[in-house]
Amino acid sequence: MSREDVDVIVIGGGPGGASTATFLAQKGYRVLLLEKETFPRFHIGESLLPAAWDIWDALGVTTTLEEADFVIKQGVNFAMFNAPHDITLLTGEFPQYFQRPYAYHVERARFDDILLNHARQSGVDVRQGWTVMDVVFDGKRAIGITATTGADLHSIFAPIVVDATGRACLLARKLGWRQPDPQLHKYACFTHFQGAYRRETNGTYMTDIHSIEGGWLWYIPLSDDTVSVGAVLDMEHVRRTPGVQARFDSAIARCPRIREWIGSARQLIEVKSISNISYLNHCFVGDGFVLVGDASMFVDPIFSAGVTLALRGGMFAAESIHAAFAAGDFSAARLAPYEARIRHPMSRIFKMIYNWYRILERQDPHNIFFLSQEIPLLRERLIVLLSGGYDHVDLEAILKAAEDQP
């Protein structure tokens, strides 16, 4: 068994892990990032938010993303309860809140590969095809990991371990911290199509959200004439239909417009699924370790917050780790500011998500999305929050504006 020592070990090369590693390498630390897969690899979660521009600038990856020719996203269309008109929320209506009032629809395989390559270019020792078997503890403190590359076993030690293993939640499962969110007991199934209808607005595209019986559908135009189509369903509707493809087809059948949009298109990949979508770990930090991105919590995809929160979490985690090195203290108490900072925006989007499902359940025609067409202040606050402006607006501010009807 080989032994190695570094300053920081990052497990996982998705947006949370790559951003944490990049920020720390920029500060001069010896960062080792281990990823079990070989990028590029398929991943869901293609719709990004304008709030990410500041983080991309801080990472130094903005120019590369601009040159990647991703589809420009200008906002969201909500088609709810068979209403005669969609509710269109354009991020460009309030450009003062963000560096740029638009974002991208991305193929996550390419997007994640760009971030991981940038981490390598920033000085991170990136090793793909490495499987981390366990995190090594000395008492309650994490001190390193054991990993395999084929038949070879490696022991690697560091003062701090960053768990960015995504839904695998390596440390949270080991410690018994991972708990499904009982309010968001949902099931998602999704695939890609080529040759489907693309609703273009001035050379850009929107995310389309369609409510259906028992859930909702997403429709996201990507590059190369591809669209991502997915369904998020209540479990009671899932149990009625056996088989992943059949569940997807059943959901599409309940939405005449999307059924028409993909009618002549070719399905590119088999339908994939995720059960019990949302979870929230009890803690995000411990002695000698932090949890970042989906390893800390998984956000329901309705408002496309996952990647933005993972990137922001990577930045916050790196800042707390840097402070821990300066103090020579890697205790949970020293690392706690990271958790406090990321739970703030996380709590705001979770409240909005809970409200969304209450709206769907009640089919309330006087909900905040319909009212945003009539109340300017409500519209502003809603668009800012859904663009990732979690520091500017919360659900309470939105509901307060909804009360001030003309």
Question: Can you give me a brief rundown of this structure?
Answer:
With 406 residues, this protein is α/β, with parallel strands linked by helices. The protein has helices at residues 15-26, 53-59, 62-66, 108-121, 170-175, 235-238, 244-253, 256-261, 306-327, 332-362, 368-371, 376-386, 395-403, and strands at 2-5, 8-11, 31-35, 71-79, 87-90, 103-105, 125-128, 131-138, 141-149, 152-157, 160-163, 186-194, 200-201, 204-212, 215-221, 226-234, 266-267, 272-275, 279-280, 285-286, 289-291, 297-298.
Distance between the termini: 71 Å
Structural domains: how many: 3
Biggest sheet: strands, sense, closure? 10 strands, mixed
Shape: globular
List its traits:
13 helices; D-Amino Acid Oxidase, Chain A, domain 2; 3 domains; FAD/NAD(P)-binding domain; alpha/beta; 22 strands; ten-stranded mixed sheet; globular; six-stranded mixed sheet; 406 residues
Characterise this structure.
This protein has 406 residues and is α/β, with parallel strands linked by helices. It has three domains: 2-65 and 107-181 and 278-348, FAD/NAD(P)-binding domain (3-Layer(bba) Sandwich), CATH 3.50.50; 72-101 and 361-403, no CATH class; 186-275, D-Amino Acid Oxidase, Chain A, domain 2, CATH 3.30.9. It contains 13 helices and 22 strands. The chain has helices spanning 15-26, 53-59, 62-66, 108-121, 170-175, 235-238, 244-253, 256-261, 306-327, 332-362, 368-371, 376-386, 395-403; strands at residues 2-5, 8-11, 31-35, 71-79, 87-90, 103-105, 125-128, 131-138, 141-149, 152-157, 160-163, 186-194, 200-201, 204-212, 215-221, 226-234, 266-267, 272-275, 279-280, 285-286, 289-291, 297-298. Strands 4, 5, 6, 12, 13, 14, 15, 16, 17 and 18 form a ten-stranded mixed sheet that branches. A six-stranded mixed sheet has the order 7-3-2-11-21-20. Strands 1-10-9-8 form a four-stranded mixed sheet, with no helix packed on it. A hairpin with a 7-residue loop joins strand 4 (71-79) and strand 5 (87-90). Helix 1 (15-26) packs parallel to helix 4 and helix 12 (376-386) runs antiparallel to helix 13 (395-403). The chain is globular and about 65 Å long. The relative contact order is 0.16. The mean pLDDT is 95.
